[in-house]
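for ur thesis appendix - ATP-binding cassette domain-containing protein. copy paste whatever u need, i formatted it the way the template wanted (i think)
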Amino acid sequence: MNSLHLRATLGSRGIDLELDVLEGETVAVLGPNGAGKSTLLQLISGVVAPDAGIVRLGEDVLTDTASNTIVPIHARGVATLAQEALLFPHMDARTNVAFAPRSTGANRATARAVADTWLGAVGASHLADRRPAQLSGGQAQRIAIARALAADPRLLLLDEPLAALDVDTAPGIRRVLRTVLRESGRTALIVTHDLLDVVALADSVAVIDGGRVVERGSVTEVLTAPRSEFGARIAGVNLISGRAVDAENSTSLTTNWGVTVHGSGRHTTGTSVVAVFSPAAVSVHLTAPHASPRNVFEVVIEEMEVQGSGIRVRSRPQPDGSPGMAADITPAAVSDLGLEPGRSVFFVVKSREVALHPALPSAARSDGYRRS
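the 3d part is after this line
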């Protein structure tokens, strides 16, 4: 079995992580810069040892501080694919790929056959005799993917593998990764900041913030009903945290700075909940409307940016430091209202457009995520 279980702390980096990955599952690892995403991969690959914890791949223990077990990097059955291809410059593409099975004891003929198989799988057979200096960025990354898979890893770690590619090359490499991950049934983690990687490659999502897993769920769950600030940011929705209160026979949310948000979804009074709603559901007014049922928020505009064919208007951060709310409106509306950064306005959203969900705990969930 190639399922993954990790529980690790690393005081120097503020890390307290717990993560479970099913065999054959691809998990997208999301989070802000410095959250601990790369450290997670380093703990799994063995580049970094935790202060305390365990890393288990299937039934095999790779790291266990309690028993002082540290399996060497080369013996873990883990392959890492990074932003840069990092091919050996003095070897042609076939020899680069063949290096992986050769390093595990395969003879030359077998290694070449494995290399040719994987070069074919990534659409790079015609590049077999070229050296890295003769390859484009996208071609080199195809060879790097083939080399990683030629090692027959039990677990594949992808650290922003498309970040260094241009917009014309990335879609092709994304398709290659999708095909090989699906067809090989390989367990994989992909660290990314690109929403396209999430929807195209991943089965589920783990959001890391402050050195902890703060959200874990299927791609659909996280993108349609995020329960962490970063999850909401990448999903492109608004999120407000607070506690459930009973108001007029329906559940509402009250923030710690005294704002009440009305929405759908009943929850026990006093429990932590989050309100989620789309920027497209928000209208902008210069004066507060009094029609019901609506949520009316007095805000100060911080920035405006082009979003598709419209304008996204974002308010200053919330009093608790969480990101400001966003509203998507037309350029004509921006002009008619005379909107600009620093202006006070009212964001208005109908109650039926707001969904209330239970908030996830700030620390890692002990049960991990399980697909049904």
